[in-house]
Specification:
The structure holds two protein chains of two kinds. By secondary structure, chain A is α/β, with parallel strands linked by helices. Helices cover 39% and strands 13% of the residues of chain A. Classes of the chains: A alpha/beta, B alpha/beta.
Chain lengths: 238, 232
C-alpha cells in the first residue's frame, strides 16, 4: 500500500498585511483622539434632548462639584496670537488687578509663577493662596501636589474658587473677579463669545442641588453675564 | 534566498496601542443647552417688563421629595427624588393664597402635582403623560401648526432649512394662544430636574419661558399642598 504523502507546509503566516491594517487603525485613533482633560472632580452631566454640540474654542468652563466648589478652565483659540498659555498669563494679571482694587493685601506674581499658571488646565484656589500654589510647580513632584490640592485631598489647603451669594457688582467675590477678568482679556473672540452666550459653559452633576447651581448662575447674572450654556449629555430614545 | 521578517510581535504591539487609544478617546462630545436669564438689576421702567397675563401664565415648581410630615428631604440611594408641581395663573387664584389678615386660605390653593414621564408608546401611537401632557394641552395651537409643518417635511415638500424657519415663525406667532411658563425651583431639587424641565420646553415648542425665584406665596402653597397630601 502506498501511503498518501501529505506535503509538509510551514505554519508561518505572513503578518505583513495584518500589520498594515493595525498601523492604519492606530493612525486613525491617534489622529482623532482628544484626551479627557484632567479635572478636579468627576461629574455626570444631566441628559438632555438638545443636540447642539459643545463649543471647542473660546469658552470658559465652570465646573461645579455637588458640594458647591467651583473650578474654571479657559479654552482659547488655537491661533498663536491667543494661545492658551499666553491668555492664561494675561488672565492672571487681570484677575490680580481687579482683586487689588478691593483688597488691602495686594497681589503680584513673579514671572515663574505666571509661567506655572499658563501651564494649568483647570484651576481653582483662593487668590490669596495662588502664589503658594504656583510655587509648588518648581518643587519635585510638584504637579502631583498641585493635583492633590485641586482635588481637595490636601488637608492643609482648601480647593475651589471662593464663591458666595453676592448681588453687588461693585464688590465682586473671587469667582466674579475671575469671570470679569475673562471678559477683559485681549482675546476679542472670547469676549464676543461671552456676550452672545456661548462663552460660558456650566458643567455640573445631575444630582447637584439646584441651590448650588443657582448660586453660580446668580453670580454670573450679577456681573451681567446672563447668557450661558449648560453642558449636558445626549438623551437616548426621545 | 528570501528574507522573511516575522511581523507577529509588531501586530501584537499595535493591537495594544489601538486598545489604549480606543479606551482613552472620547468619541461622543457633550451637548449644550443655551439659556438666557434676566439681569439682576432692578428694572426701573415697569412698562418695559414683559408681564405675562394671568391667563397664559403657567408656573412650574420643582421640588425634592420630602419625608412624610416634615421638610427633610427623602433620598433613595443617596439621591433626591424630584417632584414637579404646577399652577395656572396667579398663586391662589384671584382671591390669593394669603388673606388680608395674613391667614392662609387653603381653599384657594390651586397648586397641583405632576410627574416627569416619557411618552407612552402603543404601536405607532405616542401619547404624552405627566407634566408634558399638561404643557402640551396649554400649547395646543402652536403644536397643531408645528405638526402640519412636520407632515410637509415628511412628505418632502419642504427641506430642513425651510422647516426650521417656518417652525420658528410659528413659535413666535403672536396670533396663536401660547403659555408663558415660569420655572421655579426649591433649593433642594436637583440640577438634573432643571435640565429636564428645560428639555420639556424644547420638546413642546414653548417660546416664552423663564427661570425665576420662589415667592412667599409659592412656598406657602407648596407646603400647604404637601401637608394635605403627605404619604401619597
Amino acid at each position: 500500500m502506498g501511503r498518501v504523502k501529505i506535503a509538509r507546509k510551514s505554519t508561518f503566516i505572513d503578518m505583513t498585511a495584518m500589520s498594515d491594517v493595525t498601523v492604519l487603525l492606530l493612525t486613525f485613533f491617534m489622529l482623532t483622539s482628544t484626551f479627557l482633560a484632567k479635572e478636579p472632580t468627576q461629574v455626570i452631566t444631566p441628559a438632555s434632548v438638545s443636540e447642539e454640540k459643545v463649543q471647542e474654542t473660546n469658552f470658559v468652563q465652570v465646573l461645579v462639584s455637588p458640594e458647591g466648589k467651583v473650578w474654571l478652565t479657559m479654552n482659547n483659540d488655537t491661533s498663536s496670537a491667543w494661545s492658551n498659555e499666553k491668555m492664561r498669563m494675561a488672565l492672571l494679571d487681570k484677575a490680580a488687578e481687579i482683586y487689588n482694587e478691593s483688597h488691602k493685601n495686594k497681589l503680584s506674581f513673579t514671572p515663574q509663577q505666571k509661567y506655572a499658571f499658563s501651564k494649568l488646565g483647570s484651576f481653582g484656589v483662593p487668590l490669596a493662596q495662588m502664589g503658594e500654589f504656583l510655587n509648588l510647580a518648581n518643587e519635585p513632584e510638584g504637579t502631583t501636589k498641585m493635583d492633590k490640592w485641586l482635588q481637595g485631598e490636601d488637608p492643609n489647603h482648601v480647593t475651589g474658587i471662593p464663591i458666595s451669594w453676592n448681588k453687588d457688582e461693585g464688590n465682586p467675590n473671587e469667582f466674579q473677579i475671575w469671570m470679569k477678568a475673562m471678559r477683559q482679556t485681549e482675546n476679542e473672540n472670547l469676549a464676543a463669545a461671552i456676550k452672545d452666550g456661548t462663552g460660558v459653559a456650566i458643567k455640573a452633576d445631575q444630582n447637584t442641588a439646584f441651590d448650588v447651581v443657582h448660586m453660580v448662575m446668580d453670580n454670573l447674572q450679577t456681573i451681567r453675564m446672563n447668557k450661558f450654556t449648560l453642558l449636558t449629555s445626549l438623551k437616548a430614545g426621545e | 534566498m528570501a528574507i522573511r521578517v516575522d511581523f507577529t510581535p509588531m501586530v501584537d504591539m499595535n493591537m495594544l496601542l489601538i486598545t489604549f487609544f480606543m479606551l482613552c478617546t472620547t468619541m461622543i462630545k457633550s451637548q449644550t443647552l443655551n439659556i438666557a436669564l434676566p439681569t439682576n438689576e432692578k428694572v426701573d421702567n415697569v412698562e418695559n417688563m414683559s408681564q405675562a397675563s394671568a391667563d397664559d401664565a403657567v408656573t412650574i415648581i420643582l421640588d425634592a421629595k420630602r419625608k412624610t410630615g416634615s421638610l427633610a428631604v427623602d433620598t433613595v440611594n443617596g439621591k433626591v427624588v424630584n417632584e414637579v408641581y404646577y399652577y395656572f395663573g396667579k398663586p391662589g387664584g384671584d382671591e390669593g393664597m394669603i388673606g388680608a389678615g395674613g391667614q392662609i386660605n387653603s381653599a384657594n390653593n390651586n397648586i397641583q402635582r405632576s410627574e416627569f414621564l416619557t411618552d407612552e408608546v402603543n404601536g405607532s401611537a405616542r401619547s404624552s403623560r405627566g407634566i408634558r401632557k399638561i404643557i402640551q394641552d396649554r400649547n395646543k395651537e402652536v403644536l397643531v401648526e408645528i405638526e402640519k409643518l412636520k407632515q410637509q417635511f415628511r412628505d418632502g415638500k419642504i427641506d430642513q432649512e425651510k422647516y426650521d424657519e417656518l417652525a420658528k415663525e410659528v413659535r413666535r406667532n403672536e396670533n396663536l394662544k401660547k403659555p408663558v411658563i415660569i420655572i421655579k425651583s426649591t433649593p433642594e431639587a436637583s440640577y438634573g430636574a432643571l435640565v429636564e424641565i428645560l428639555d420639556e420646553m424644547q420638546i413642546n415648542s414653548i417660546s416664552k419661558y423663564q427661570i425665576d425665584n420662589m415667592t412667599r406665596a409659592d412656598s406657602v402653597m407648596l407646603i400647604d399642598y404637601q401637608n394635605r397630601h403627605h404619604g401619597e
